[in-house]
Amino acid sequence: MAFSRVRKLDARSRGILFRKAVVMLCSLLAPLILLHLLAERCASPSPVRGSPRTKRLVSEWSAGSDPAGRAVAGGALARARAGAMVWQLPGESPAPPAPPDLVASPRFAGKVSPLGEGSKKLPQALIIGVKKGGTRALLEFLRVHPDIRAVGAEPHFFDRNYDYGLEWYRDLMPKTLEGQITMEKTPSYFVTREAPARISAMSRDTKLIVVVRDPVTRAISDYTQTLSKKPDIPSFESLTFKNRTTGLIDTSWSAVQIGIYAKHLDNWLQYFPMDQILFVSGERLISDPAGELGRVQDFLGLKRIITDKHFYFNQTKGFPCLKKAEGSSKPHCLGKTKGRTHPNIDPEVVQRLRDFYRPFNMKFYQMTGRFFGWDN
Ligand SMILES: Nc1ncnc2c1ncn2[C@@H]1O[C@H](COP(=O)(O)OS(=O)(=O)O)[C@@H](OP(=O)(O)O)[C@H]1O
User: What separation in Å is there between the alpha carbon of 214 and the centre of ligand 1?
Assistant: First the structure.
């Protein structure tokens, strides 16, 4: 009995001793393990937690950008510069790289303040027409110029919104710095009777730009746009004539009316001298955008900054596009409402319209001193 008690006590004390040893060992090892883990965490990059966007931003940042967020070689901007493929459609050749003077655009070299400095001014130049002439393309291309600032939407001030007053109009404008030109485009001005007097009242020095296009194609383009919104309208052929049998053209139909350029121009010449109006060929704006843009920059008294280096021809779109749009590093084509497929029109009707427009076109060539070649 005594022997067994001694043996029991021995076993208990051995157990206590063992537990104490384990506790001591643990308290010695724990800080060591903790130190080791911390050291490892500092040595290797931490996994990025959060949304895919956060992960992308962090990886772009670590791929190369300075602390201010400007990407350096290998970073977001560098990839975007080389990233014409973002816009590429299957089977399409990639957009050529943007010209270096675009990459280091003066726009981002302090001319336009990211802090929104400058003041809103009334436009010094307007794209007044014509509807479906290529006015959006011209404005988008001009906006690449660091000395041009323009409203994206059509203000329709001198036709629909005149009663709101000039202060309302000015307020729509973007802020500009000294030497920059404020612009807007509203193609309906060209055919608005009151527009020349109203624009002249704002400033007699306003420079006017009119993009003109073969009036027959323009009429079909106009009709195509209406058809896309109202598929139930009568055919182009039936809308063209007052009386199809006599072949009398319905000149009150706006699609026909707008193309009588010489008549509308007469109205403008009551208020503006010819040298204050520039006519841009809608056809050449497609076949040689840089050439037409050169003329526009000269007319606006600007340095020829927009050149053929800024454009590439997008085979799928079938139109010239910008290698880099304003304020962006990506290639940019106009949207799908620009460059629609036109319906087939009865060739006899097309010929009848050509005959109708010919004398007005001749007059227009004479007035403008430029032969647009619509009657070849
Ligand atoms: N680069 C480029 N990309 C796409 N489209 C171009 C371009 N240049 C000129 N065009 C022609 O512009 C036509 C539309 O003219 P507008 O912009 O003046 O139309 S609108 O009056 O503002 O609705 C549009 O007419 P449709 O082809 O009938 O759609 C185009 O032919």
Answer: 13
Q: Is the CB of 131 under 6 A from ligand 1?
A: yes
Between the CA of 49 and the centroid of ligand 1 the distance, in Å, is 46
Whether the Cβ atoms of residue 86 and residue 332 lie closer than 8 Å to each other = no
123 lines ligand 1 (CB under 6 A): no
- The question of whether 309 is a catalytic residue gets the answer no
User: Annotated binding residue at 55?
Assistant: no
Instruction: Answer yes or no: is pLDDT of 102 > 50.
Output: no
**Distances in Å between the alpha carbon of 85 and those of 35, 45, 318?**
48, 31, 18
pLDDT in tens, 286-322: 999 999 999 999 999 999 999 999 999 999 999 999 9
Atom of ligand 1 nearest to the CA of 342: 28
Q: Distances from the Cα of 207 to the Cαs of 19, 140, 226, 348, in angstroms?
A: 95, 18, 30, 39
**Domain assignments of the chain as residue spans, ordered by start:** 119-232+253-342+361-368
Beta-bridged to residue 313, according to DSSP, are: 320
Q: Which residue bears the tokens 């710095």?
A: 177
Ligand 1 atom having least distance to the Cα of 333: 3
Residue 310 Cβ contacting ligand 1 at under 6 Å: no
CB-ligand 1 contact for 338 (6 Å cutoff): yes
Structure tokens at 168: 């309302």
Q: Which amino acid is at 153?
A: A
Candidate list 20, 55, 121, 132, residue with the active-site label: 132
Multiple choice CATH, 119-232+253-342+361-368, 3.40.1190.10, 1.10.10.1100, 3.30.830.10, 3.40.50.300: 3.40.50.300
Q: What is the mean pLDDT of residues 349-376?
A: 97
pLDDT of residue 101: 36
ipTM: 0.99
pLDDT in tens, 176-192: 999 999 999 999 999 99
User: Was 116 annotated as part of a binding site?
Assistant: no
